[in-house]
Amino acid sequence: MKGDWVEIVVDVGGAATRTYEVTATRAGRRVEIGNRRGVVEVSEVTRTGTAVRTARFMSNRVLALVEHPVADERGGHQGDGRG
Questions:
Q1: Contact present, 80 and 70 (Cβ < 8 Å)
Q2: Residues contacting residue 9 through CB under 8 Å, at least 6 positions apart
Q3: Which DSSP category does 81 fall into?
Q4: Residue 37's closest CA among 56, 18, 53, 55?
Q5: 3: closest CA among 68, 77, 54, 70?
Q6: Contact 26, 12 (CB under 8 A)
Q7: DSSP assignment, residue 77?
Q8: What long-range pairs does 30-34 form, CB within 8 A, spacing at least 24?
Q9: 37: nearest Cα among 6, 67, 60
Q10: Each residue's pLDDT expressed in tens, for the chain with a length of 83 residues
Q11: By C-alpha distance, which of 58, 53, 30, 55 is closest to 42?
């Protein structure tokens, strides 16, 4: 859903971390997360399932992966049963 975004915090060595964000930028797009063979993959995907933008990270370097769903028009969050 447009406005949904995922925040990824990655250990880049030493005491340093780096934060990346992947956002659903247009109507009808969503953000999908996959974890395959030691790689975390976060993709912005169209309605038809085509990946528009993909970010890949080594899973042993990912410190946090936080999903931020956008609130729907009625004030609740999508999928929480309150809206």
A1: no
A2: 17, 18, 19, 62, 63, 64, 65, 66
A3: S
A4: 56
A5: 70
A6: no
A7: B
A8: 30/1, 30/4, 31/4, 31/5, 31/6, 31/67, 33/6, 33/65, 33/67
A9: 60
A10: 788 889 999 999 888 999 999 988 888 899 999 999 999 999 999 999 899 999 999 999 999 999 988 876 555 555 555 44
A11: 55
